[in-house]
Amino acid sequence: MTINACLDCNRSFSLDEEYFLNVLTILSESPTLKARTELGGSIYKSRLRSDKLYNRLLNSLVNGEDGRTYFRPETERLRKIIEKYAFGLYYWKYKKVAPLNLFKCVGFYPFQVEETRPAEIFILIHNERFQAKKWTHIQEDVFSYIVVRDWSRNNKLTMIFHMHNTAWAVIEIPYPRGKITSNAQLKLFN
Questions:
Q1: Structure confidence by residue, pLDDT tens digits, 128-165
Q2: How many CB atoms lie within 10 A of CB 134?
Q3: Are 151 and 159 in contact (CB under 8 A)?
Q4: How large is the average pLDDT for residues 81-96?
Q5: Phi-psi sector, 16: left (phi>0), alpha (psi -120 to 50), beta
Q6: How many CB atoms lie within 10 A of CB 183?
């Protein structure tokens, strides 16, 4: 799935997208992502190609008070990519464009041994009988999303991503309004 975007907008995200994929790989147990870190894989090549990227990832390792090592990513870079993805999916789903600043990532929850996803987000993906709502699968076990009304925010729309069986992202999105946008190249910035 691709969305036409102007060259400047597309290029402005490339380093952050590379960082985002590296972070997912660090957090993941997904065989699909782990294969990319092996000799010849795209993540392996990106780390080999860029000392700056590799050092940034190493500098994100912090020692906890409990003696364990933790990974603390640059959250603003993650947020930027998640909001860009939400913008593109919004256009793909509704054929409408809303300003990028109306897409607000409000949560990024890696899957871990202990559950970190807030209960109110988990509840959003279920109906009143606690049956799972229908997700849109872009690629099974790689990327899925759902759009729900968030009762805790006066029924505003919320988009939730499920990425590589590694993390959930939660994004506030606007209601689709106005006329249908043409399929021209999208400008993310005004």
A1: 777 888 899 998 888 999 999 888 778 889 999 999 98
A2: 9
A3: no
A4: 93
A5: alpha
A6: 10
Q: Count CA atoms within 13 Å of residue 110 on its CB side.
A: 17
Question: Structurally, how many domains does the chain consist of?
Answer: 1
- Give domain status of residue 43, yes or no: yes
Tell me the per-residue pLDDT of 17-55, one tens digit each, with 9 for 90 and over: 999 999 998 888 888 888 888 888 888 888 888 889 888
Is the residue at 179 inside a domain? Answer: no
Q: Tell me how far apart the alpha carbons of residues 121 and 185 are, in angstroms, rounded to a whole number.
A: 33
Residue reference for tokens 């400047």: 8
| pTM of the predicted model over 0.85 | no
**Is 47:22 a contact under the CB 8 Å cutoff?**
yes
Burial class (CB in 10 A: 0-12, 13-18, 19+), 54: middle
Distance CA 99, CA 178 (A): 13
CA distance 37 to 34: 5
**H or E, element range at 93:** helix 75-94
Contacts of 79 (CB under 8 A, 6+ apart): 105, 108
Q: In one letter, which amino acid is 151?
A: W
